[in-house]
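Researcher: Here's a chain I'd like modeled. Treat it as a single chain, no partners, no ligands.
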Amino acid sequence: ESLLPLLHEDEDRAVKIAETELAKFSQIFQHRFNALMLAKLGLGADSPPEILTDTFALLSHTGVDFTLFFHRLTDLAKGASEQDFLALFPESSTGETWLKSWRAKLGGADAIANMQTLNPIYIPRFTQLETALKAAEQDDMEPFNTLLVAVTTPFTQNPDFTDLAKPINETAIPQQTFCET
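Model: Modeled as a single isolated chain. Structure tokens:
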């Protein structure tokens, strides 16, 4: 509402302009989201979006950690063994079925290089942030500094950060969060 005067002097006209522009958002967002997610998978923007639906259904059904999924998929695309990727799944056959479909669509070297810039090893997970904040309250800045280095170099493997690349423990998921988190 506060932006309407910037769009047009006449309020009714300003509302129509705003509504027209806002109506475009969903389509623009969906297009860009699909392109980004396809790139994270090493696929071209012209790939059928059904693979995204299938991928999200797979991740939801199996409970596989998104960050680990995309990072290990990147490693696999670079030539790593399937073993680490398939170990993410409760049943490796589920991952194998998805991989078969994915391999048929995987792009070339440029797509794989792009995957490396889109699929981080380290992300700031809630429990890690919570640990760093609690330690900082006790004047121990080491967990914070370690996490800071990891998330400012999220694509660089570092043996000192092995624990930061692990998924969170299901029992550690907060039941309630607050705006400042």
